Amino acid sequence: MTKAEVITKISEKTGIQKDDVTQAVEAFFKVVKDSMAEGDNIYVRGFGSFINKKRAKKIARNISKNTAIVIDEHYIPAFKPSKVFVEKIKNSKKIKHMATQA
Question: Between β-strands 67-71 and 58-62, what pairing exists: parallel, antiparallel or unpaired?
Fold first, then answer.
């Protein structure tokens, strides 16, 4: 599902015009990005957490040049779903049906 499809679905379910939903969704994403860039984590009860995960310093290899490079300690954005979210997916009949077909 694309962002445009999400916006359309929210608009249909709430009766709010697409332009207003688009502004709200864009504002949400901007707040998440800006907050995480400042080092803050975002916790949405019943949905999940947007967190900054720490990656330790490590040595990587460039196989083609046969050299070692050092990758410094850094942070990456991550999403951790809540228990409620995970349970909803686990108990989804459609997901279970897709898993049995694979």
Answer: antiparallel
What's the CA gap between 33 and 77, in Å, rounded? Answer: 9
What's the whole-model pTM score? 0.76
Cα dihedral 69/75/77/80 (nearest 10)? 110
From first to last of its 102 residues, what are the pLDDT tens digits of the chain? 999 999 999 999 999 999 999 999 999 999 999 999 999 999 999 999 999 999 999 999 988 998 999 999 999 999 999 999 999 998 888 877 777 776
CATH number for the domain whose boundaries are 41-102:
4.10.520.10
Selection from 53, 56, 43, 57 nearest residue 77 by Cα: 53
